[in-house]
Specification:
Radius of gyration: 14 Å
Helix content: 40-55%
Number of domains: 1
Strand content: under 5%
Largest sheet: none
Structural class: mainly alpha
Order of helices and strands: HHH
Distance between the termini: 32 Å
Length: about 70
């Protein structure tokens, strides 16, 4: 059914945020119009790529994908 079964997304982990952090994420969701899970996934992947020194690998940014 899928060309690459490894690309199927599944629950990987959970994060705990305090009220201020959650409000920040919610504000970013409201601003960009991106779903919360998608936004958090993009932020995590972007940070991981930057940590590995390949930040330009995917190109684009969250702001570009917003409204």
């Amino acid at each position: 059914m899928y060309q690459d079964p490894k690309r199927i997304r599944r629950r990987y982990g959970a994060i705990n945020l305090d009220e201020y952090e959650a409000r920040l994420i919610d504000a970013l969701v409201d601003y960009t119009g991106i779903e919360r899970a998608t936004l958090l996934r993009q932020l995590v992947i972007k940070e991981a790529l930057e940590a590995l020194g390949i930040a330009d690998f995917h190109g684009g940014s969250i702001a570009q994908r917003g409204r």
